Structures are given as structure tokens and as C-alpha cells.
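Posting for a labmate who doesn't have an account.
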Amino acid sequence: MLRLLDISVSSVLLLAGLGLFTATFGQAFDVPTFGGDVGPAFAPRLFLIVWIALAALALVQAIRAEAPEPVDVNLSQMFAVLIIVCATAYAVTKIGFVLATIPGFAAFCWAFQYRKPMRVLILSIAAPLSIWALFTFGFELLLPRSPWFNQI
């Protein structure tokens, strides 16, 4: 049963990635560049290529795998993660990426029973700042900012 679920989910992810990738060649993405080297479809296509490759690998692995042993599902942990994801996503729209993901990351650590306070503190600050720096300086894609940063 779990093998069928793995095949189904990876197939849906692969088809969704292929569909979104082909959509980037539509009229909505046919926008002249602002003097840059690449157009606005470059980053989505790059991310979707990675998505498609990972989904294809997951599908091949699921097809080749033997039936796994049943896994116990912790429903309270699953609902806690769902609530953390929704709260963090909502907070990103209100207070910006960095300020929302720091407590979100700490809450994920707590939900997955990783509770070494100093390490959680360091990771929950370093990980969002690293992701923010990668997107801002590496990919040059701005993540949502805090409204208070405009006042500084």
C-alpha cells in the first residue's frame, strides 16, 4: 500500500512539475527583460528543472523498491507540523521571511522532538538568515520583507 502511495505522489509531483514547466513558455512569461541577461522565467524554470529531476528520481526509486514495512504515523505530530506550516506561511506575509521563519524553524525542531536549546537557537537563527542571504545575494530574488525595515 505504501509503495502505491509513493508511486502516486511522485507521479503527481512529476506531472505537476512538467505542467508548470511548460506553462513558463506561455504568453504570460513572454516579457521583455529590463536590461538583464535573463528574463523573468529563468528562475522558475531553474527551480522546476530541479523539481522535475527529483520527482523523476523519486518515481524510479518507488517503482524499483520492494514493499516497505508499515510505518506508524504520529497524527498529533503531523497536525502540529501542519499548524506550524500554516502559521509560518501566514506570518511571512505579515512580518516578512526572516522574522517569521526563525520561530517557525524553532517550532519545527520542537515538533520533531529536537529540543537541545542552544543548538535549536543557533539553527533557528542561522538557517533562515542563510536562506535569505542565498536568495538575496545568490539568486537575486527578494523574499518578503518586514514592513518595519522600511522605517529603518
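Reply:
Got it, the C-alpha cells are right above this. The chain has two domains: 2-64, 75-148.
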